[in-house]
Each structure stands twice: as structure tokens, then as C-alpha cells.
Amino acid sequence: MNRFILRLLLCFISVSYSVSARAQQKVTGRILDEHRGAMDGAVVLLITTPQGVLVESTLTDDTGAFSLLPREGDFLLCIRSLGYKEVKQRISCTPGLRLPDIQLEPEEVSLKDVVVTARKSRPMTSTSHGKIQIHVAQSYLTDIGNALDVLRHAPGISVSNKGEISLATIGGTAVYVNGKKLMLQGEELAAYLRSLSSSKIARIETSPSPNASFGADGAGGIINIVLKASEHSGFFLTTSHSIAYWDHLKQSSDLALSYNTSKWQLGLNYSHSLGHHGMRYGYEKVQNGDKSLSETIDTDKRNTYATGIDFSWQVAPKSKFFVGSSVNILSGPGETNTTTLLYKGMTTLDGRLKARNNYIEQKTLRYANSLNYLYQPSDRQQLSLTLDWTRFDGKARCDQPNDYYSPSDQLIRSDVFYSQPEKDIDIYALLADYKLQTSTQSEWLLGVKASHIASDNSFLFKKNGTLDPQRSNRFRYDEHNIEGYTQYTHTWDRFELSAGLRLEYMHTQSELRAHTSQATDRSRGDHLRLFPNLSLSYSINAKNKLALLYSRRQDKPRYEDLNPFEYLLDELTYWKGNPFLKPQISHKFILNYLWRDLSLSLYYSKLNDYFTSLTDVLGPDKTVMTTKNIGTQQQVGLEAVFSRRLTPWWDFSTNLGFYYFANQLHYETYRQDYRRPSCFLSTSNSLLLPLGINLELSARYYSARQGGSYEVSKPTGGMDIGLNRSWQSGRLRLSLLMTDIFHTERWDSYGTKDALQLASWGYGESRKVSLRLSYSFGRQRFNKVEKQLEEHNRL
């Protein structure tokens, strides 16, 4: 019996192997459109040479993939699809040959007396391997204002009232533009995104587990903002102008000019956004049995301006040179007015504090310069060298009068505080990337990066005109990084394995000096860390795919969080930095299943030494907010993404996620666990109405969810609606948009820690009506442009 079972097992293995080997012998490939999206339904023809006899034909599936029967010899491969130029390639077939991806070019065809009409599919999202692409340019998001607004309304991405950007998974998120990391944090990052017009964005790509060619920062994953690029020759100009209104009137304009030839391309751009933005927020606090109620009216009066120049030159057929420079400005005044009612116990009014922040000056400037050289000696090799320099200058001057009144509204005490923070950050980076395709099944990515970050911060604080030496200081932070990575990918018919490792050495040095003293506190740190990743995928058939991913990533503390100075928000509330912060490290496992238009991702992530901003008591009636490493955070989640054209006039996409959080706060003497389930839902609908009008309706909902520490965020969400129509083959476009129709987007939360009970609330000017007009003109001829080492394809 045992021999019979063994023979049967060997026979089964032999048959399975022969079937598998037969499947592996097929000639396979993939067809992509001009945006590197999958081409569904493209015709693939295999023709003998020189006889010109058609031996086989097939169609690509919805992933753009095709397969042909095993053959040997020289053939002509023809690819045809309506609206695209025909591609012809001579190939030498061998069993198991896997062809490189083939990208089609749109064809501009003028047919006399014949009109051919077709509506392009317009789903907002698409997925692959658990990664999501949000198609901004073909949705109402292109008219919403700036990049920060796009992220606020994009599915699967959340932006806090402080401008902190995150994906659904725990941990911070690293933001890239065209595959290049924005080495800015916090307010500096938000300021730059506010100056980037939404009309310049082609799409947004999110990945919770990117490979080693991306930096190790971003424990929660990365967001890559891909800007529009011109692949035409000739002169071209695009301009758009919009006005928006609800509480305040806003106006924005952008202008992009390009002149391209087959050898060089020149691009110029300018944009601005003018107008005020209003917010209202407050809290109810019970501290040691005494209650206080606070409400703030905040008016941000800053305007944004941005300009840039790009130049690329095809020095030789195998060499390309690129230089780019840009300036982004966020400047203007601002004002907050806060009234705080102080109680003895819960009901007896004890006093009233009126505080005002008059931002006389607020100015942030970002200068970015980049040099890139690309060399491609063959179709299987390419080398990219990049040198970047980014400078950030920030300055503010703020008068802070505080008036304290008795319960009967008699002035008891009046103080005038003055603060003047200044921040200068220089970031230098040198990168070298090398790509080698050793065979049709194998590919190597190798790279090194060296960077230096110098952050110089000063803070001047006065009380009633007298310098406060306890709060005035100068803080300098320097960080040196040397990084190297390797990523190897190999394909066996239906299997694909990708493994990578990133090594990072970081040296930090900080120096804190009091304003009126030469006493200096210095600290140094050296860290060597490894960040591995692994991805294994299996194509069950043309429409079903399974993938397993693992990655280890990190979040470094923000520069301002390391500065231990105290910043006065009002007389009762302080913010203080922490120079002892350590990076938080994440481990993440993802199981992804892709079936036609549905993507399912089951994941587990753990964050060690995680840090967050905490509100703690300071004396009997004051609170201080400090960022600390407070413990371990874990999350289990299930996400579903579905996109499909339901009818010829209706495109539908939805994101749905279920999560379970567990926060273990173990720091200093505090020990407490917090656990809570939550969910997220977003939908997007694009409908074609009569007269060529597109109607877009989008909605999102977040349930109650556990915050970073002991606080709980209350449910929130919103709904947007947009109408747009194009004329003159898309050159003229008019759109009308209303965001947050029911004004339900809020940032309410509550929490209890020992003798402190805190409930906060707030909302911004998220509801607005905007009208945008866009126009493009110029003569163009489409040229074939090879896409060399596009960083965003590393997703």
C-alpha cells in the first residue's frame, strides 16, 4: 500500500511538473497605454518572416497581459488597438520567452466626413499588488485647488487639521513627487503642498509596502504624486483660473508653457492661490476636578505663489541631461482669537481668559534645484545620477495679548507676549541608481544615496517687552545619512519573486544654546539599520493574482519635535519639543488577492517605539503638549478596492476598510492599553449626462477610531459633487464644484488620562463652491519618448 501511494504521488508530481513546464514554455508579455496603464483588448498578431504568414492572434486581458503558444524562430509581433499607433517588433521566439513591456502611443487621426466617438473609462482608482493609483487628472480632484486639498479628498488618504498625512496603516507616510522624496516635514511639507496646484497632478500612487529603491522612511507607506508631463513637440500653453467661496473668497491661477523638440524640452510654470481660510476649534477640559471651556476663531490669511523652470536635453541617443529649479512661497498674516472660561469645580465660573495671536508676519520660502544625468548603454541597462539641493526659510512674528477677567467681566491682569521663531533648513542629496536586466525574467536595481540635513532654529520670546531667557534659545540639528540598496526580481511563468534590502547609516548631532548664556547642551547619535522587503506573487490565471508582501520601515522624528523649547499657545497651554525622541520602526505583512476589478488586502502591522503628541498636565491648571516614544502600536486590517464601468455612462469605484487598533502605552510610570475597531468607506461615481456633461459624486466616511495615544477620534466624513464639460477636443474645460456639501468634515475627539479629561472639536472651511476654467492652445506633434528610470514605476 505504501509503495502504491508513493508511485501515485510521484506520478501526480510528474504530471503536475509536465503541465507546469508546458505552461512555462509560453511566450508572454504585457501591453501598456501612454500612462503605463493596462491595455485591455489590444490585438496581438504573430507573423512569420519573411513569408508574412499569420500563425497566431490573441487579445490582451484586463491586466494588459497576453500569451502565445510555444514556438521557435524569428517572427514579427504586431500590436493594434483603436486610437493607438500600430507597433511592430521583430522577435526571436524561444520557449518560455517573456517580452519586455510594450507601451503604445496615442494616434492623432483626422478622418474627413467621419466622426468616431468613444468615451474613455474614468474610474478614480485602480489597484495592483495592494497598491492604489488615484487618477486625479480625470476626476473632479483636478479642480479642487492644491495638492493638500487633493490628498484630503482622495480615497484611502487622511489629512489631519495639522496637515499630517497618513494612509490607513499605522505609522507615518513619506511623500514623493515624480518619484523624488520631499525631504520636508510637518508644516514645511504642508506649506509646499499648498503651493502645488491640483491641475498639475496626473495621478497619485500609494503603496503601503514599497521596495528597497524607495527610502526607508514612511512606516505607514509612501505617497507618490505624479505630475503631468508633455510628450509633444512644438509650442504649448495651458492656463486655468478659478474662484471659490463660502466664508471667504479665494482665487487661484496657474500657467504652464512648454516648447519641445526632438532634442530638448523647455518648461516654465507659475501659479498662485489668494484668499483667506477660516477654522473654528476648541476643547472642554476637566483637570483635577476643575472644568475649562475654550473656543478659537482662526483666520489664515497667507497666500501661495510658485514658479519653476525645467530643461531637458538629449545629449546623445544614449544620454539625457535634466535641470530643474523652483521657488514656492507661503506668505501673509494671520489671526486667532481664543476665549477660555475657567470654572471652580464644574459649574462655578472663576474667570475668563481672552487670548489673541496676531501673526504680523508669516513667511515660508522653499527653493529646490535638481540636476540629473541619465545614461542607457543598452535596452537592459540604465544609470541615473542626481544631485539635489533644497533650502527652506521660515520666519514668523506674533503678538500675543492675554487678558484675564473676573466672573463679572472686570479686567484683573493684562500681559503681552511676543514670539519670533525662525527656521533655516538646507538639504543636500546625491543619488546614483543602476538598473540591470540580466535576462527577460530577471532584473536588478542597485543604488546609493548620501544626504546632509542642516536645520538651524532660533526662538525669541518676550513678556511685556522683556526677554524671557527660559524660553528663548537657538537649536541646531545636523543629520548625515549614507544609504545603499539592492532589489532583485525574478519571474517564473506565473510566479514572481522580488527581494530587497536597504542599509542606512545615520549620524546626528544637535546643539541647544540659551539666548542669554553661552551654556550649550550637545548630543550625538549614530545608528546603523537594515530594512528588508520581500514580495511573492502568483498569477492563478489571467484574472486572478495572489501576492504576499513583507517590509520593515521607519519614521524619524520631525526636526521641530527635537527642539526642547517651550512655545506658548496661550497662558494655559504650552507646546514643548523632546530631544530624546527615537525613530519608530514598523513591521508589516500584507496578503493581497486581485480578481478582475476587485482587490482585497489583509494585513498586520506593528510599530515599535512609536511616538505621538501627548497632552499632559502641567501644574494645577495648565497643560503641555509633547511628542514622546510611548510604547507599541498594532493593527490588523482588511481593505477592499473595486473599480468598474457599470454601464456605458457610469464609472464606479469604492474603497472599504475594516481595522482593529491596539495601543500599548508603556512609558515613564504610565501603563495602559487601548483597543478599538474602526472602518472607512469611500465611493466615487462618474456619470455621463446629455450634452457631454460629466457629473461626479464622491463621498467618504471614517468611523470612530483610536488615536495615537489615549484619545478617540469621533466619526467624520463628507460628500463632494462636481460638473464639468470640455470643448475643442479637450482644450477648453469648464467645471463647477462643491466640496463637503453638508459641512460634516470635523476633527472631534475625546480621551481620559488619570485626572485629565479632554474633549476637543473643530472644523475648517472645507465647504466651498468653486468655478474653474482651463484652456490649452498651441501646435503639437506627438513624439515617441522613452521613459527612462521613472522613479514612480518602482511602486
Walk me through this protein's architecture.
The structure is a single chain. The protein is mainly β and 795 residues long. It folds into two domains: 24-118, Sandwich (Immunoglobulin-like), CATH 2.60.40.1120; 125-284 and 308-319 and 464-794, Maltoporin, Chain A (Beta Barrel), CATH 2.40.170.20. Helix content is 5%, strand content 65%. The protein contains four helices and 48 strands. The strands form five sheets. The chain has a 22-stranded antiparallel barrel. Strands 8-9-14-15-12-13 form a six-stranded mixed beta sheet, with no helix packed on it. A four-stranded antiparallel beta sheet has the order 3-2-5-6, with no helix packed on it. Strand 31 and strand 32 form a beta hairpin. The longest helix is centred in the N-terminal third of the chain and has 23 residues, at 2-24. It is globular, with a radius of gyration of 29 Å. The two termini are 52 Å apart. Mean pLDDT is 85; it is low at 4-24, 108-119 and 780-795.
Q: Which features characterize this protein?
A:
single chain; 795 residues; mainly beta; Immunoglobulin-like; Maltoporin, Chain A; 2 domains; 22-stranded antiparallel barrel; 6-stranded mixed beta sheet; 5% helix; globular; disordered C terminus
- Termini distance? 52 Å
Assigned CATH superfamily of the largest domain: TonB-dependent receptor, beta-barrel domain
Radius of gyration: 29 Å
Q: What is the highest CATH level, the class of the largest domain?
A: Mainly Beta
Class derived from helix and strand content = mainly beta
The largest sheet, given as strand count, sense and whether it forms a barrel, is:
22 strands, antiparallel, barrel
- Counted up, domains total 2
The general outline is globular
Average pLDDT score: 85
Number of strands: 48
Considering DSSP H and I runs of 4 or more, what fraction of the residues is helical? under 10%
Q: Which blocks of ≥5 consecutive residues have pLDDT under 50? A: 4-24, 108-119, 780-795
- The CATH architecture of the largest domain comes to Beta Barrel
Per DSSP, what share of the residues sits in E-state strands of 2 or more residues? over 45%
CATH topology (level 3) name of the largest domain: Maltoporin, Chain A
The total of helices stands at 4
